[in-house]
Amino acid sequence: MTTEAQAAPREYSWRMPANWWTRQRHYFLYILREFTALPMALWLIWLLYEIRRAGSGAAHYYPPRSGAFVAFSVVVLLFSLYHSYTFLKLAGVIIRIKVLDRPVPSRLIVFAMFGAWAAASAVVAFVLIWFAR
Amino acid sequence: MSDQAAARRRPALDHLVFWFLFSQGGVISALFLPVHVVVQGILGPLDIVPVADQHYDTWVRVLGNPLVKLYILVLVMFSFFHFAHRLRYLLVDFGVHAARSVPAQAVFYGGAVVVTLVTIWILLTTAPLGG
Fold first, then answer.
1. What is the value of ipTM here, to two decimals?
2. Sign (positive/negative) of CA torsion A89, B24, B68, B121?
């Protein structure tokens, strides 16, 4: 047996090309869905900052009104709507419920999740607007 | 029963906890975040509707409600565990294999814990309960 044959085998680990997610629309939308977490996290950190600023007293509090903030919120809204749509739609695949020993159709589960989204949005909007008076 | 068989039968508690936090965070952020962005991020600043956070008095009154504090804590805590999981796997998908490591998990999920603790501190110190 030669020295070369006794040496440790070389490893040829296969790596995905860096741009794999741009090659198919489905891959791109998958990465987009995963990426939605970042803008939503940034917006929630801003909300915490906004809450913290209220602790500094009335003299130091100024409401967010800049055009840049509105533009940032519009971008975050697009990502958060995409997250909501994809995640709530997934409920029809993940959730398995039986009523009277019969499985609830996945379409009904998805419909219920989107109904819950509408109801939750209405309640939060009502509180934020009603208590502004 | 061998140790291996016992290990197989034992429920993967850590997986259960992380998947619970991930899925609940996904649902909570999907149900509640868009309306906050619309109302507080767009409609309020543009003066289309009056919003509580546009005035100090109304904002502090809302934040002083214990139910609102609890709601904000739940919204932030679960959402950030969801975000931590998704962003860690986003790095894995981009070929950053270190994102699978235990230190990376500590950074991402630990980050979610830190944000949760900061949120608790902010909520307890910002507006007095019942204010």
1. 0.89
2. negative
